[in-house]
Design brief:
alpha/beta; Metallo-beta-lactamase, Chain A; seven-stranded mixed β-sheet; two-stranded antiparallel ribbon; 11 strands; 25% strand
Amino acid sequence: MTTVTTAGDRAGIGIPGSTETIRATPNHSAVARRVREASTYPVPAIATGPAIGHDGYAIEELGDRVFWLSDGAYQSMFVVTDEDVIAVDAPPTLGHDIVRAIAKVSRKPVTGVVYSHQHSDHVGAMSIFPHDVPYDAQRATAQRLVAPADPHRPLATHVFDDTLTIEAGDRVHGNEGVAMLAALDRPETLGWACRGPGAATNGPA
């Protein structure tokens, strides 16, 4: 709606007897409130995320000793062997809850860490893991970790191009381009996947 004013109106004194129509300025706050309070389409159950407990996270065993961890928005995962633990990603919103969650499942040490990609919202707390263990990353990811010089995202110590195989305890972990979804029974529970060198996407494959 357009507001029409006269010189007198602009001066704040008005013009008695003016034939111009002065329209009220729209109440944008009221409009915004109606939009906020309007009914919306129900969120599909699959999009509501996991139930978050008192610990502040949800944890689930996806397969044989493969664990998924989420705060409802971001996620991490780890694999437990008979000797140790291999961890993947560490979102800042989970932070030390990852360490606590691992400790509830296993007393074995974390002996390897894997970057899915370099984005800080997914890996900005990688420094919670021991600094003297291998940090694996695909080459493009490893290169992109250099410029930020973020102490919470330690540089990769082991770089690969196409295939990563981690021999840990009683298990051998293979990974094509860090596409972590292939061997999991419920890939939809992971919110990220990497397809090819350093290419990350949010959402199920």
